[in-house]
Amino acid sequence: MSSIETVKPVVTTKPSTRQACISKQMIIPAKYAQMTADEISRQIQDKKQQFGDELVILAHHYQKSEIIPFADYVGDSLQLAKSAAANRAAKHIIFCGVHFMAETADMLTTADQKVYLPDAMAGCSMADMANLAQLERAWQLLEATYVEPVIPVTYINSTAEVKAFVGDHNGVIVTSSNAEMILKRVFAQHQRVLFLPDQHLGRNTAFQLGIPLAEMAIWNPKKDQLLPHDSNQDPQNLKVILWKGRCCVHQQYTVDQIAQLRQQIPDLKVIVHPECPIEVVQASDFYGSTKKIIDVVAASPAHTKWAIGTDNNLVNRMIRDLPDHDIVSIDPTAFSCITMNRIRLAHLLWTLEEIENGSTLQQITVDKATQISSLKALDRMLEM
Ligand code: SF4
Q1: What predicted TM-score, i.e. pTM, was given to this entire model?
Q2: Which domain holds residue 312?
Q3: Which residues lie with the beta carbon below 6 Å from any ligand 1 atom?
Q4: Which of 266, 256, 264 is nearest to 309 (CA)?
Q5: Does residue 315 share a domain with residue 298?
Q6: Which residue, 199, 202, 183, is CA-closest to 191?
Q7: Same-domain check for residues 264 and 165
Q8: Are 53 and 92 a contacting pair, CB within 8 Å?
Q9: What is the per-residue pLDDT across 25-63, written as a single tens digit (0 to 9) for each?
Q10: d(CA 102, ligand 1 centre) in Å
Q11: From the CA of 124, how far away is ligand 1's center (Å)?
């Protein structure tokens, strides 16, 4: 058995599109701070009318509630990117979400459709936990360790460069809705996967498919090291190698919070997102993607008591929009996605004015080669 730490890896120097975006150093002009919320809202509305069908505004489910009324579509990242692609008349697509979402939209839309992210700093902290250089190093070490091919499986919450690498290495993209089905298909043909960047989605999904924790290990990209479940674990017996990434929002929910709520609220049903740690998912009644959480709760009989473990911007809107249901957040004090919440009404107006002036300051582009490779991984997902 070859050791997993014996190969000296080669490091890529290619800058990421995320770095390129941040280096634009976009700072919102001070004039917007002098405007009232009403003035900003009015001007956004006027500009939306001026642009007409040439503009589409997308908002992720976790976006601030002040943005939602201006969105043409509200949804999860892939659903929104597909909506943008379906609106061929829309030359300008403003994605009120995070960087990888705007990248995905750019990859799925045509060359004459431009995608904009209102704040360059709105990245996904989870996606940023896996960069191409780290992945290339991990890959070299894994290739030296295993004779059989390891299949890279990346969550859609990853950078375009990571998706491209996965596409070029026979891998596939998953979403939180289809991760279980896709992993099952992958395991029908292959014996080992590298799942990135979210260890929790990978662990929860593999566990649900009957793979014991003892056959999973964590890859620490900062130390280029495999962290086994226990010291006797033989790397050759591993089926799932989980990248050490996580979502700062979903890791806030705990088993103790759920236990306390169950004590306080009889007949409580608990539903959480699979980006939560496995103990939290196991302590819940249901788990699933953001869309599944919305659908399951909305379809439940009136007065069903729910505790929800996902971003509180969404949970608070569900409390407001589903008054016949008794909904609480597992932790009402938990913070919402910090980076996504950088986008405020003022950023939306600023973006509209920049577009009007012909500026590409907030535009997100994925180069052709990265796009072609990424789409290989996306197409494999769609084929499955
Ligand atoms: S909620 Fe988590 S996974 Fe989603 S964009 Fe924010 S940090 Fe990324």
Answers
A1: 0.92
A2: 254-329
A3: 62, 98, 124-126, 157, 247-249, 311, 337, 340
A4: 256
A5: yes
A6: 183
A7: no
A8: no
A9: 578 899 999 999 999 999 999 999 999 999 999 999 999
A10: 14
A11: 5
